[in-house]
Design brief:
Blueprint lengths: L5 E5 L4 H12 L3 E6 L18 E5 L5 H4 L8 E4 L7 H5 L1 H22 L3 E7 L22 H19 L4 E6 L2 E2 L12 H10 L4 E4 L5 E2 L2 E2 H13 L5 E5 L5 E2 H8 L3 E4 L14 H7 L7 H10 L12 H7 L1 H7 L4
Parallel strand pairs: 1-2, 1-4, 2-3, 4-5, 5-6, 6-11, 7-10, 8-13
Antiparallel strand pairs: 9-12
Helix pairs in contact: 1-7, 4-5
Length: 334
């Protein structure tokens, strides 16, 4: 018989977080969501409305005094809250440090004070930068190319340090190119699926960076959620694990699956031509493996495409304007 647990999900109104909350509730857990709604959407939790097993707090996780008492009696913490995207991290590094680093320390200390039994951190594969080896193992050197990647990596170091020094039972999961229903519809130009789906709805061409031959290790949201649950249910401590499909797909292939015209825009500095995770360790240590192929994942998105009807429709001109700081600070010309 399953024993219900009390769980905190930071960033639980966000894309991945809301899927995780849904899964936790479906298995009988009681979930407290902490989210400041800067990028998360309360609408992402609408399906869970009326469920007594969920509590929502709109709060800044970096405010230790505001969150620490919420951790009393909690068994597990899934720390997903973070600022994402490249360009705004270049423009607002203080804000990214506040959310991603200060926020993580605040959550770690709240968890430590409450005697949390499991702490799962959502790390980012962006820490690898442009790696030397593919598929890329967890032992690859960190080479963050921009403040978002740096702050997520620095926060991961704090997570592992709290595990070593304070004996907090932590696991860090490095997510690769997560996509799926409820991925972001607004904000700064960023994730490819949200951009392409809005363009498809508007009958506009897909804006493909470079020549489209670059590949990404696209990982479906429900696979990521299953990795989080497996890590929480395990006895692993102080481990860093890649979470990915292990099967990179080109942007051109993605466009082919989505169906539509294409316009090409300049390749951006600091972006790898390939992301490809070595997922040997997570398969061995957790028995986890991805289930959703890119073909199945795209079909699911197209069946739920109305979610992106209010999303901004990007054009080559608006993209060039939104990413000018990207080229300014990360380009060869300084």
């Amino acid at each position: 018989m399953y024993k219900a647990r009390k769980v905190i999900v930071t960033g639980g109104a966000g894309f991945i977080g809301s899927h995780l909350v849904e899964a936790l509730l479906s298995q009988g857990d009681k979930v407290t969501v902490l989210d400041n709604l800067s990028t998360g959407r309360i609408e992402n939790l609408d399906l869970l409305e009326g469920k007594e097993a969920i509590k929502f707090h709109q709060v800044d996780i970096a405010d230790y005094q505001a969150i620490k008492d919420l951790f009393r009696g909690i068994d597990r913490v899934f720390h997903l809250a973070a600022r994402a995207d490249i360009v705004p991290s270049i423009q607002k590094p203080f804000a990214y440090h506040h959310s991603n680093v200060d926020g993580t320390i605040s959550v770690l200390e709240s968890a430590r004070a409450a005697g949390i039994k499991r702490f799962i951190y959502a790390a980012s594969s962006s820490c690898y930068g442009i790696p030397d080896n593919y598929p890329t193992p967890e032992t690859a050197p960190a080479r963050p190319q921009y403040p978002y990647a740096l702050t997520k990596y620095v926060a991961e170091q704090y997570v592992m340090h709290w595990g070593e020094v304070y004996n907090l039972p932590v696991v860090s999961l490095r997510f690769f190119n997560v996509y799926g229903p409820r991925s972001r519809t607004s904000g700064t130009y960023g994730a490819v699926f949200g951009i392409f789906l809005a363009q498809k709805l508007a009958n506009r061409p897909f804006t493909v960076v470079g020549d489209g031959t670059q590949t990404r290790d696209f990982t479906f949201a429900t696979d990521v959620v299953e990795a989080c649950l497996a890590a929480a249910d395990s006895e692993l401590r102080n481990e860093i694990l890649n979470v990915a499909s292990g099967h990179p797909v080109s942007v051109n292939k993605l466009v082919e699956l989505l169906g539509g015209d294409v316009t090409f825009i300049p390749k951006r500095p600091g972006e790898p031509d390939c992301t490809h995770a070595d997922i040997t360790r997570i398969k061995k240590l957790l028995g986890w493996k991805p289930k959703v192929t890119i073909e199945k994942g795209v079909r699911i998105l197209l069946n739920n495409i109305d979610y992106w009807r209010e999303a901004p429709v990007w054009t080559p001109e608006t993209i060039a304007d939104a990413t000018k700081d990207w080229f300014k600070y990360l380009g060869e010309e300084k």
